[in-house]
Amino acid sequence: QSVLTQPPSASGTPGQRVTISCSGSSSNIGSNTVNWYQQLPGTAPKLLIYSNNQRPSGVPDRFSGSKSGTSASLAISGLQSEDEADYYCAAWDDSLNVNYVFGTGTKVTVL
Amino acid sequence: QVQLVQSGAEVKKPGASVKVSCKVSGYTLTELSMHWVRQAPGKGLEWMGGFDPEDGETIYAQKFQGRVTMTEDTSTDTAYMELSSLRSEDTAVYYCATGPREYPGSYWGQGTLVTVSS
Question: Per the CB < 8 Å rule, is B102 touching A97?
Answer without folding.
Answer: no
